[in-house]
Amino acid sequence: MAPTSTPTAPFGRVLTAMVTPFTADGALDLDGAQRLAAHLVDAGNDGLVVNGTTGESPTTSDTEKAQLVRAVVEAVGDRAFVVAGAGTNDTRHSTELARQAESAGAHALLAVTPYYNKPPQEGLYRHFTAIADATGLPVMLYDIPGRSGVPIDTETIVRLAEHPRIVANKDAKGDLGAASWAMSRSGLAWYSGDDMLNLPLLSIGATGFVSVVGHLVSAELRALLDAYTSGDVAKAAEIHQRLLPVYTGMFRAQGVVTAKTALALRGLPAGPLRLPLVELDQAATELLRRDLAAGGVDL
């Protein structure tokens, strides 16, 4: 049974976009995934996103995606929301992944803006609607124009919010003005998808985070959120400022690369990357260590 959701926080408030652990020979490490999921929930996450970008979804098979969802739900599904990435740039494939995730026990779906083919806004509307129509699961949109090449315009977000199963948006647009208008007009639950903007997005109405740095600082993210929601804005700002080197260091390279490097250095399940992603070299690894240490994270 999934945790109890609320309209303002349908998938929890602190979620880590979890890496997908692999074995030394590059196979899916389901035992490692379960151990990592349990570690992250113990550290303060009340939700996890699997099969997202940080989960190397472009290079995992459909079968692996279903196996991963099933394993993580088995490990932590009674304590945390498990949100399964189902978005691709192919609507038919996305609806198949959505149904597969539902069958595997996911509590919700994450649907990213179609990438590379740069559809018009009407295409985005029909794409997301098709995914939401494919299952009975609630859906979080994922607006990340830096990767997809196309933003979800505010008018499109407002239209999509009319669908009963589209209930949230993961915002990695980096536009606080657009976010303000979209939150105000859509009523969707809003999740920060850009760690550097976690606190600024809270200040304009976001409900929580879908984080990469949560692999390392979930407790600090929870403390930041709790401080802000309890009215201690100064404490929240202090935590935000303390974490700035962590945010910077984790995004000097692609987030999954740095996350897997840091997890491995901590002795947690991670494993190798799948091409075209490659490991950090020694100099970049040492820089990551320094950045994280400056933010209070020792590896």
Q: How would you summarize what this structure contains?
A:
Helices cover 47% and strands 12% of the residues.
Topology:
Blueprint: E1 14-17, H1 30-42, E2 47-50, H2 62-76, E3 81-85, H3 91-104, E4 108-112, H4 121-134, E5 139-143, H5 145-148, H6 154-160, E6 166-171, H7 176-186, E7 189-192, H8 198-203, E8 208-211, H9 214-229, H10 233-250, H11 255-265, H12 282-294
Helix pairs in contact: 1-2, 2-3, 3-4, 4-6, 6-7, 9-10, 10-12
Describe this structure in words.
- This protein is an alpha/beta fold and 299 residues long.
- The protein has 12 helices and 8 strands.
- It has helices spanning 30-42, 62-76, 91-104, 121-134, 145-148, 154-160, 176-186, 198-203, 214-229, 233-250, 255-265, 282-294, and strands spanning 14-17, 47-50, 81-85, 108-112, 139-143, 166-171, 189-192, 208-211.
- Strands 1-2-3-4-5-6-7-8 form an 8-stranded parallel beta barrel, surrounded by 5 helices.
- Helix 3 runs parallel beside helix 4 (121-134) and helix 10 runs antiparallel to helix 12 (282-294).
- The mean pLDDT is 97.
What's the alpha carbon Rg, rounded to whole Å? 18 Å
Main β-sheet description: 8 strands, parallel, barrel
Order of helices and strands: EHEHEHEHEHHEHEHEHHHH
Q: Low-confidence parts, pLDDT < 50 over ≥5 residues?
A: none
For the biggest β-sheet, the strand order reads: 1-2-3-4-5-6-7-8
**Distance between the first and last residues' Cα:** 35 Å
Strand content: 5-15%
| Tertiary shape | globular
Which structural class do the helices and strands define? Answer: alpha/beta
